[in-house]
Amino acid sequence: MQQSSAHLRSRAEGLASSLPPLLADAQQLAATVVLGAHGRRRSGTGDEFWQYRPMTVGDEARMIDWRRSARSDGHFVREREWQAAQSVMIWVDDAQSMAFTGDPNRALKSDRARLLALAMSVLLVDGGERVGLSHTGQPPRSGPVQLIRIAEALTSDRDTPEYGAPETRGLPPGCRCVFLSDFMGDMAPVEAAMAKAADRGVRGAMLQILDPVEEAFPYDGRTIFESIGGTIRHETLKAGDLRDRYLERLAARKDRLDMLTRQTGWHYSVHHTDHTAQSALLWLYAALERGR
Question: pTM for the full model?
Answer without folding.
Answer: 0.76
